[in-house]
Amino acid sequence: MSAKETKTSKAKPRKEKDLQDKKRPGAWQVIAMPLLAVLTGLLVGAIVIVVTDARVIAAYRNFFQDPLGAIGLTFQTILVAYGALFSGALGSPERIFLAFERLFTTGETDGLVRAFWPLSESLVAATPYMLAGLAVAIGFKAGLFNIGAEGQFLMGALGSAWIGYTFHLPWYLHLPLALLGGAVAGALWAAVPGYLKATTGAHEVVNTIMMNWISFRLSDWLLNGPMKATGYRPITPVVDSTATLPRFFPDPIRLNLGFIVALAAAALVYWLLFKTTFGFEVRAVGTNPDASKYAGINVPRNIVLVMMLSGALAGLGGATQVLGVDHWVGQGFSAGYGFDSIAIALLGKSHPVGVILSALLWGALRNGATRMQSMAGIPIDIISIIQGLVIVFIAAPVIIRWLYRIRTLETEKVVLTRGWGK
Amino acid sequence: MKKLYSIMAVLLAAVLLLSACGPRAVDCSADDVYCVGQVTDLGGIDDKSFNASAWRGVQNALDDDLIASGKYLESQGQSDYARNIQQFLDENTDLIVTVGFLLGVDTAKAATANPNTYFAIVDYSYPDCWPGAVVGTDCGSDVEIPNVRGLTFQTDQAAFLAGYLAAGMTQTGKVGTYGGIQIPPVTIFMDGFQAGVMYYNQQHGANVQLVGWDAATGQGLFTGNFESTDDGRAFAESLMQEGVDIIMPVAGPVGLGSAAVCQETGGCLIIGVDADWYDTAPEYRSVLLTSVLKKIDVAVYDTIQDMVNGQFTGGTAVYTIADGGVDIAPYHDFDNQVPASLKAEIEQLRQQLIDGTLTVNGVLGR
Predict the structure, then answer these.
(1) Looking at the domain assignment, is residue B62 inside a domain?
(2) Last residue of a domain, one of B129, B153, B177
């Protein structure tokens, strides 16, 4: 099988390249469509911000006395909100400039830490999104809808926390072991629905959701029982410092090696999917399982392997979050990373590079939302609305095409999942 | 298409021009301008429990012009605690109020690193370390932190009165309680409730039983969460099956599910906790006997006032029945059903608790 394939793929390149060249005129759409979806999401979000702001509504009640004031307040509200979102996500340019100025004149680095803290927090927030997003994306590639990333994320976190506080080893053993433990816990948790799908055809959507609930209750029990730390709080003990992912800068900057781990995982997934026979089989099964079966691909084995790989990535996400950021697990450990990752995989078109970019966007939005809530008094839930809108526009590209008058492309047909049965 | 883009450009220009006119933001770094920020735990600002109560304290301070700005940040996951605290530090906030034991370590770390910012933490206090614990990871601090005030509540004193009242009002001879999660801020209510029932039995030679908690063994009923009103329904139903006709749920909004069951069946009465449920859950007034008040809003307001007056002190502020920080609410709709003799006894007990001739631990024998 593999020998045959390498032969055909050797002959392929020229033809494929020709084909791609013909389609080149529309290639920009791959980048433009998600960007336009984000832009439109922000625009509609601005409307939501304005119509839910009590001050703005009050100003419009008195519109005829002071029309300019009302319109001015409308735009000011939007600008303050999105200004805070921007400076909360990336840092204020003014502050960064001043910090560098101080560094060069007095040699003090305190300002730098404050100036780059927002950016660091965005990258910290993006790390779990990246790994969980990759988990869902690799499932999509194989035609599997893994909704269980949340549960796998949690199990990964618990697994790595357990290794982190139970064993006492030198860091070069402890850290890799704790990371591996997280990945294995996630993989095993995902293997169950994978195995059920492969052997009985039980739909993975239902089973991964059920596994989520089991993991939530299991963690409740673990945190109140076997894994509970000394004292009354229902949290795990803190992991040993030898198991933590090293941070690059002084407090409060929390950027850590986990970010690099996530990037490396994305590179690995890219290599697996596009440079190996396994990846070819995965994509083949995702596109047409029946044809793959007749082509001699072991479809059930592929399903189990992909689910395990997906779970391992989500579990690794949980592990980096524990070992890099929190150092302990409590109730409410995950702020919905596993569920958001479905959106991230969609936005990133299930491509590793796309997932990295959309995870960075998601992390920046979520982190920026903190400042937006604080500076502009906009509830943090607005960000969820904007994120939801972005996903609607991604899932229904017709809206974007109609809004911005973009032609439909023949090539842009991505099969994400198959329906029930078949 | 061209038209659309030119419209967008014009709009953008208009935005930039128009937004220049408008009110300016508050400058928190000024000496005489006080800014307060509250970091919630996962329950969110509308939890009808301690986050909401603490926020009411901040809002009252705003209304009274004690402070120029009062903000809150909601935490959605545990990694948000440190981020939200840091965000307020970044804005030169003068006092940061954190809510709940889960923020204990992050609050201590931030306070130690920023000695010029005041902190208040609800339901927690320092030192919080146990032998062998590592400061900064396992626990927050092994000494008092001068710029942090822990706000704790002697709620067992108020719950004592509620337990005495319940024992005097029960028709079936059985009263019940259950908790959210078995942590001291919850079980202290249940201890007091039990002591109240026991003291009633001693005084009246009665045999009223308490279902759901035993302070001696530490065994009791817990829902395991502070969210599920369905659990509240289920717990109320099983308590009623055991013959209980008065229930004190110590689980935040979970208790509302129990109140709903009492209202639907007419088979039980509810004792609210934290706030006066007569105001916060008016739909259940017809089954609300009283509420055990834990005035977090007053504690937060006091802290803000002390800061503004330059009298902020660190350490632990314990609110008791003597200073009114804990109490039971008026009987409201049940005022004419509670016997005058029972009311008088409870008033007397309150005085005894205030002057210290009666203690909850004394009644419990520990």
Answers:
(1) yes
(2) B153
Q: For residue A150, tell me if it sits in a domain.
A: yes
Contact call for A234 and B134, based on CB within 8 A: no
% of chain B at pLDDT higher than 90: 69
Same structural domain for residues B97 and B224? no
| Residues on chain B touching A337 (C-beta within 8 angstroms) | 77
Q: Which residues of B touch A374 (CB under 8 A)?
A: 37, 71, 73, 87-88, 91
Report the residue from A234, A334, A371 with minimal CB separation from B87.
Answer: A371
Q: Hey, are the CB atoms on A76 and B224 less than 8 Å from each other?
A: no
Q: Count up the domains in chain B and report the number.
A: 2
Give pLDDT, residue A5: 46
Is A250 part of any domain?
yes
Strand ranges in B154-310 using DSSP code E only, listed in sequence order:
174-179, 209-211, 213-214, 219-220, 246-250, 269-274, 288-294
* Per-residue pLDDT at A62: 82
Q: How far A144 CA lies from chain B's nearest CA (Å)?
A: 28
B-contacting residues of A 324-383, CB under 8 Å?
325-327, 330-337, 367, 370-371, 373-375, 377, 379-380
* Regions of chain A with pLDDT less than 70: 1-27, 409-422
CB contact under 8 A, A233 and B102: yes
Whether residue B20 is predicted with pLDDT greater than 60 in this model: the reply is no
In whole angstroms, give the CA distance from residue A238 to residue B209. 41
Q: For residue A251, report the phi and psi dihedrals to the nearest 5 degrees.
A: -55, 150
Q: What range does the domain containing B217 cover?
A: 155-293+336-364
Helix pair B80-90, B104-113: axis angle to 10 deg: 30
Residue of A nearest to B21 (CA): A72
For residue B287, what is the domain's CATH number? 3.40.50.2300
ipTM of predicted assembly, 2 dp? 0.83
